[in-house]
Automatic annotation (TrEMBL):
This is Patatin. Its EC number is 3.1.1.-. SUPFAM superfamilies: FabD/lysophospholipase-like. It comes from the Eukaryota. It comes from Canavalia gladiata.
């Protein structure tokens, strides 16, 4: 707080607009100087305070799992990056410039990992458009149907095809072509999976990876682990880069399809990277869904294995959204959820416009939802205004960054 020492018997007079009559100048030059000084320092104090309040917010971006086309998340991320560039007048700005931490599950992890992967010089290797284009162009490789036997009707995907595609994208773009790890990210990254060996969730974290090679894993393995949906992929067995930590992973969406709660909990307890965060009032959160089914199962006799998986994933996401709605009930602008309905399965990029034009369905504190007049596009635009106000984030970049 700025403390102003003012001359005695001098009262502050507000700034007079030029459209109003101008009073005669005072005959006392000392009094005029005191008024001008007070006005200047008052404005400086207001600017300083507003800047200080803005920078106290730690900015979190999370992306849900679910589906294979990422229609909702893809549309939201591209619009988010476009709005950041428009509102900052910086055509080269990227999403990682304005968020402090990222989290993603399933196909959301692919996107979160790509937009935070370090190019070796502290900048993201991929833009939002690059990441979404990768999902679109490599979708058949990521989710390549596996030939089933004559008596097997259940659809399965090829693990080998997905692993090949992931290794291509999470590799250093130089002659060495080193496979990138959790440490090789511009900003902290969280990716959850479920470990069958310990029967507990396991979260890949850059904070853990920087402390020990036993918790550092190649990025393609983290993405492969979080997307190992039971019935569609076999469990994924893998180890850390030093071989001392091993997991047998299945889809992280079974327990953390909406990773927003995990990201918030991580920030609240990680005082090393986020020392100024004491509660949710210190957070600014953007949670991006990946589409929810338009049709609900109303009869248990209609439940198939795939519909039960959809119910589980959708239920986890909605539960987390409801909990965060309660946590941020006193300041709803600090928590924004982007979701759309009927886009959870296969789709085309032509549906992106429909996603952005869909009206927001907001969770109410303590239960229920309400349909707002604003669209997903409008909500992202309003969020970006608050996001970019403090300027770019100042967290340290990847520990593996090499100087140019």
């Amino acid at each position: 707080m700025l403390i102003l020492c003012l001359p005695r018997n001098v009262s502050y007079l507000p700034h007079v607009d030029h459209a109003e009559p101008i009073e005669k100048p005072s005959s006392n030059p000392k009094m005029d100087l005191g008024k001008v000084t007070l006005e200047i320092f008052s404005k400086l104090e207001q600017q300083w305070l507003s800047h200080y309040e803005a920078t106290t917010k730690t900015r979190i971006l999370t992306i849900d799992g679910g589906g294979t086309a990422a229609i909702v998340a893809g549309a939201a991320l591209i619009h988010l990056e476009d709005q950041i560039r428009a509102q900052t007048s910086d055509p080269h700005a990227q999403i990682s410039d304005y968020f402090d931490i990222f989290a993603g599950t399933g196909i959301g992890a692919f996107l979160a990992a790509m937009i935070t992967t370090d190019d070796g010089f502290g900048r993201p290797l991929y833009t939002a458009r690059d990441a979404v284009r990768f999902i679109a162009e490599k979708n058949r490789e990521l989710y390549k149907p596996k030939h089933a036997g004559v008596f097997l009707r259940q659809r399965r995907f090829s693990s080998r095809s997905m692993e090949k595609a992931l290794k291509q994208v999470f590799r250093r773009k130089d002659e060495a072509g080193r496979l990138l790890t959790i440490k090789d990210t511009c900003k902290p990254l969280l990716i959850p999976c479920f470990d069958l060996k310990s029967s507990a969730p396991f979260v890949f974290s850059r904070a853990d990876a920087t402390e020990s090679p036993s918790f550092n894993f190649e990025l393609w393995k983290a993405c492969r682990a979080t997307s190992a949906t039971p019935g569609l992929f076999k469990p994924f067995h893998f180890s850390s880069i030093d071989g001392k930590t091993s997991c047998s992973a299945v889809d992280g969406g079974l327990v953390m399809n909406n990773p927003a709660a995990a990201a918030i909990t991580h920030v609240l307890h990680n005082k090393r990277d986020f020392p100024s965060v004491n509660g949710v009032e210190d957070l600014l959160v953007l949670s991006i869904g990946n589409g929810a089914p338009a049709k609900r199962v109303r009869d248990v006799r209609e439940c198939s294995t795939s519909s039960l998986v959809d119910i589980a994933l959708d239920g986890v996401s909605e539960t987390v959204d409801q909990m965060l709605g309660n946590a941020f009930c006193w300041n709803r602008t600090d928590y924004v959820r982007i979701q759309a309905f009927g886009f959870g399965g296969e789709g085309t990029r032509a549906e992106e416009k429909k996603v952005l034009n869909e009206r927001v369905l907001e969770s109410l504190p303590f239960g229920g939802k309400r349909l707002l007049q604003e669209t997903n596009a409008n909500r992202i635009k309003g969020f970006v205004q608050r996001l970019v106000a403090p300027g770019k984030t100042s967290l340290p970049s990847s520990p593996c960054k090499v100087p140019p």
